[in-house]
Amino acid sequence: MNRERITYPLHLIVRPFNGFWDMKYEHERRGNLIAAWVILALLALTMILQSQYSGFLVNFTNPKYLNSLMELMYVVVPVLFWCVANWSLTTLMDGEGKFVEIFMATCFALVPLVLIQFPWIWLSNYITLQETAFYYFSGSIAVVWCLFLLFVGNMTVHQFSPSKTLVTMALTVLAMGFMAFLCLLFFSLVQQIVSFVSTIYQELSLRS
Prior knowledge:
single chain; mainly alpha; 8 helices; 79% helix; globular
């Protein structure tokens, strides 16, 4: 991975219109899947460390019940759900974006969350109650910045108008909720089947 590809996400977050355009049409020189996965991994690491080491004034997670695997899933699964739902919808709406481009644009849009939240993991241990306002304010900036980048990324990748991009993003969120419901329904059904088979096995074992 050359230096341009390493520094490209930082260029993209300050010049998103040019950045996402270059990502779509000059991807061989710009961002690639490796960089996207690295950003996603860094965000997951940031969330895990934040839950474990943030100051007690802003950290409401009990370390005794912290599950790093679940924290990882809370980051990776929503991103994958977003990409799948967005790709499925935009395919029907004449979007020009490929799944790989949607995934890269989504991961690159997450960079502000890493850049802003990561330093606060340690800074939050030295702030007072009054200074927690800066913590929450910076977190809000990171989220707004991320949403703006996600909007520009979707608009550029699919070559949609701003209004169509907003509609598509709203429908993507609804599709994510529907996917989550189907997954919960599936796992509930599997759990019931396993419980039913286990009960039958126990009954047969007792009678034999």
